[in-house]
């Protein structure tokens, strides 16, 4: 493996456990494998999530309300698979998952959407301590409108502007509509009880500034990281685990665009793409559309 990124410092700011791999797992693994120092900042424990599989279904917020603690373990396994370090913003449990727009969780004063200047100061401290050259988060819409994703975007840009040494570049992770369409078209069969997305149901963008083509090693690491979140992600490869003992199997007509099929708790089949896509959020211009780091200095 080419170790051409030794000395590069990268910080990814994410809202919940599993976002680090769904949105940026390929990039984080690639950076780490090439020698970069990579840290994931996770802002909440994802307490409001649903649970795939019956064995731990009662951990949800409306039940035992123990899902957040369980997901700490899932996140640790995911970060290990990606080969990166992780921290919780303000410490584990400082900020609570806000849920989707309109959820009762929005009213909890500990919800991340109410984090105000305190969260911005916490992330500024992280940036001052780690001094990242590159920061990755979501765009202004949070990728798909989740309030915590939007808040992560807000505090990232505010903290970057207040940091003693601002990052050279901020990238926004996005889903490419053309790539998604290609990947969906290659899904030949899906598991029983799963469904295909309706037109426009999965959030995606028409334009992006840079594409990361995942190496085989980065793709394998991303898949391992996704499988580390079994309460949230179901990989249709026939495997079972203690969290979800039910097997699901999908097939692809081609593995050139996607290399696996997965679903969230909504059971909408999605392709796990061999590419990740990013928009320039701030800082140094993209010097190479096939590189996330070209033009940076370290």
Automatic annotation (TrEMBL):
Reactions that this protein is recorded to catalyse: 1D-myo-inositol 2-acetamido-2-deoxy-alpha-D-glucopyranoside + H2O = 1D-myo-inositol 2-amino-2-deoxy-alpha-D-glucopyranoside + acetate
GO MF: N-acetylglucosaminylinositol deacetylase activity; zinc ion binding
Pfam families: PIG-L (PF02585)
Required cofactor(s): Zn(2+)
This protein's record includes keyword Metal-binding: yes
Cofactor binding note from Swiss-Prot or TrEMBL: Binds 1 zinc ion per subunit.
Function recorded in the entry: Catalyzes the deacetylation of 1D-myo-inositol 2-acetamido-2-deoxy-alpha-D-glucopyranoside (GlcNAc-Ins) in the mycothiol biosynthesis pathway.
Protein name: 1D-myo-inositol 2-acetamido-2-deoxy-alpha-D-glucopyranoside deacetylase
Organism expressing this protein natively: Corynebacterium kalinowskii
């Amino acid at each position: 493996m080419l170790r051409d990124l030794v000395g590069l410092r990268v910080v990814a700011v994410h809202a919940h456990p599993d976002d680090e791999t769904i949105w940026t797992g390929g990039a984080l693994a690639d950076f780490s494998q090439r020698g970069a120092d990579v840290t994931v900042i996770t802002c909440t424990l994802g307490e409001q999530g649903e649970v795939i599989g019956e064995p731990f279904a009662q951990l949800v917020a409306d039940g035992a309300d123990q899902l957040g603690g369980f997901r700490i373990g899932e996140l640790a396994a995911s970060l290990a698979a990606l080969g990166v370090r992780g921290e919780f913003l303000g410490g584990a449990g400082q900020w609570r998952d806000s849920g989707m727009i309109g959820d009762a969780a929005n009213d909890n004063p500990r919800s991340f959407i109410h984090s105000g200047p305190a969260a911005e100061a916490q992330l500024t401290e992280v940036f001052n301590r780690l001094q990242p050259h590159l920061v990755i988060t979501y765009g202004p819409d949070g990728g798909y409108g989740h309030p915590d994703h939007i808040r992560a975007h807000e505090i990232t840009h505010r903290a970057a502007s207040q940091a003693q040494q601002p990052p050279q570049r901020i990238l926004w992770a996005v889903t490419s509509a053309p790539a998604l369409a290609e990947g969906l078209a290659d899904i030949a069969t899906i598991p029983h009880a799963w469904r295909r997305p309706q037109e426009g149901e999965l959030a995606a963008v028409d334009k992006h500034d840079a594409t990361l083509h995942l190496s085989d090693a980065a793709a394998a690491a991303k898949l391992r990281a996704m499988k580390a979140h079994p309460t949230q992600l179901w990989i249709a490869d026939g495997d079972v685990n203690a969290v979800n003992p039910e097997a699901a199997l999908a097939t692809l007509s081609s593995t050139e665009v996607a290399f696996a099929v997965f679903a969230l708790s909504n059971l909408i089949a999605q392709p796990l793409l061999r590419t990740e896509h990013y928009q320039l959020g701030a800082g140094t211009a993209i010097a190479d559309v096939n590189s996330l780091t070209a033009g940076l200095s370290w």
